[in-house]
Amino acid sequence: MAGLVGMDDVAAEYLTAPPEEIFAKAFDTQAYDVTELSFSNYLYLTSTGDCPYVGLPVFPSRSFRHAAIFIRTDRGIRGPRDLAGRTVGVREFSMTAALVARGILADDFGLQAADIQWRYGPADAGDSQPIVRMKPRGIDLQPLTAGSNLSDALRDGALDALIAYKPPPAFLDGAPNVDRLFVDYPAVEADYARRTGIFPIMHLLGIRREIAARDPALCLRVCAAFDAARHYAVARTKESQAPFTSLPWGPGEAARSQQVLGDDFWSYGVGANRPALEALCRYSWDQGIAVKPLTVEALFVPATLSWVPASA
User: 86-125 burial by CB neighbour count: b if 16+ within 10 A, else e?
Assistant: First the structure.
């Protein structure tokens, strides 16, 4: 957007908006030629055969989600298995943060999505109503009572826990008996990364299917441009003479990320991300979201499957 990276023979017009708005416009009206997409909702729509976009192996949003699980501390919840039979809130059952958090609970702790009673609704008092695109198979999923929201429901005890892509006001305001399930989440997430080799992917880039079919070479040029931007952005997090970010220990945190995740810790391309991609496909099917099992190869423009980005 700053003009530092360009694409040959492409005049790009950039539009920005909150992610939820971008996703809704993309999936519902195909408002963009190339767009950031919710990975979980992309998986669902791809499994139905109704997705207007096909993926490019560019991943602009990634996040570990152990920190996304908040609990009532007065309900006897001492660990993940104690969530079995509980009532847990989520903004959208199909949002990627929840998909990944539930997948981790299943893989590492044997807690399945069907073991929990799920309730959905706005994240907080200022949030919009969630878009419900599907009803998961074999899952108890119901809306919150009218006028309620997840943060207040957790604060008031109507929920035992919730999964949130950002800390709810009840937690930030220090409400009694509200805390994270994994209090020492940085250590837990680093251990998960070392054991699995996965840095969870939240969003991917999508291109309209008719454009991809007409011009596969364009897909590769888009991938290369985003990869050049990635290199620029990641390199600047390491600057220490005049730090580029406003974080006082930013370069040290960049070094810690490399130590845990490897030098190319924010990678693009299918090959470098296959474990994370296969996990997302499995989670979507196991949690009753995808209507059929998906392979990694089914998610991306064929010309990009063997694309290898430049090394860090």
Answer: bbbbbbbbbbbbbbbbbbbbbbeeebebbbbebbbbbbbe
Residues 211, 289 contacting (CB under 8 angstroms): no
Structure tokens at 212: 């991809």
Express each pLDDT in 38-59 by its tens digit: 999 999 999 999 999 999 999 9
| Burial tier of 160 (Cβ tally within 10 Å: 0-12, 13-18, 19+) | buried
Half-sphere exposure of 62 (CA within 13 A, CB side): 20
Residue 312 has pLDDT above 70, yes or no: no
What are 178-215's pLDDT values in tens digits?
Answer: 999 999 999 999 999 999 999 999 999 999 999 999 99
- 3-class SS letters over the chain: CCCCCCECCECCCCCCCCHHHHHHHHHHHCCCCEEEEEHHHHHHHHHHCCCCEEEEEEEEEECCCHHHEEEECCCCCCCHHHHCCCEEEECCCCCHHHHHHHHHHHHHHCCCHHHCEEEECCCCCCCCCCCCCCCCCCCEEEECCCCCCHHHHHHHCCCCEEECCCCCHHHHCCCCCEEECCCCHHHHHHHHHHHHCCCCEEEEEEEEHHHHHHCHHHHHHHHHHHHHHHHHHHHHCCCCCCCCCCCCCHHHHHHHHHHHHCCCCCCCCCHHHHHHHHHHHHHHHHCCCCCCCCCHHHHECHHHCCCCCCCC
Instruction: Give the span between the Cα atoms of 310 and 59, in whole angstroms.
Output: 15
d(CA 25, CA 223): 22
Which two tokens mark 183?
């209090």
Could you tell me the domains of the chain?
19-61+204-304 (no CATH), 66-195 (3.40.190.10)
Distance of alpha carbon 7 from alpha carbon 226, whole angstroms:
9
